[in-house]
Amino acid sequence: MDAMRLFREKSSFRSIGRKHVINNFQLESRNHFNSYKPLLFNLTFYNWIIVKFPENSEIANFAFDDILETRISLDLCQNTKEVSFSEFIGAKFTEICNIFKVYCNFKNFFVVSHLELLKKASHEDILGPLFEFYLLDIFDLPTTFKMPMQITDDANIYVKSKRKKKKRTMIKNQKLEWLIAIENLHEEIVKKGNSITETMSAKFRNYVEDLYFILETEGLFEEFQTEMEMKNFSNTVKKIKLFN
Distance from the CA of 104 to the CA of which of 80, 126, 144, 243 falls in 20 to 30 A? Predict the structure, then answer.
């Protein structure tokens, strides 16, 4: 069975940044049923993927993208605090939260392109793993979010991987990509002020501001700026030597 083909057949889009009900969801919207995005497959399928395929495989990352979208859509709906939605979603709430935690506990699947979706999220279990654990970890800073996250698994449906986790490494270009993204988000917050709440949750804003302060205090923005300037200078010198 071609698992990746199944994903593609169930979804005509492959990018996490695709135009989607979540992207168009207004934080104050009351049409919450229309904002809920179900998982493409059942939970057993996602557990099978994380056990069967390498952690950096295309299908594992695609699976996390789908889970992340569903978890955020659930968060948006849950924020309405209406009983009708709780009755509508039922036991799926715990199941979706659990499979999201399974993937977050396994490795860091987050990439910069996820930030557009995460802007609308508010729950600590969604934002905490990225802002208070993984991003601090890749910059060798003390983490403040407890990992692995606790999973409520009364039905015993989640397959725990026995593979030894490899030590995750991030090349400088990837670190720089995150630094640029956080700096751009901070600039957006400063520029738009209170009007930022139209496109960004208050919790997400707080996470960005706190992380920006930590990175700035540690001198990481200045450090990488200096490295880039030195790299550009070195490349310029090499070009001059080539033409002399």
Answer: 80
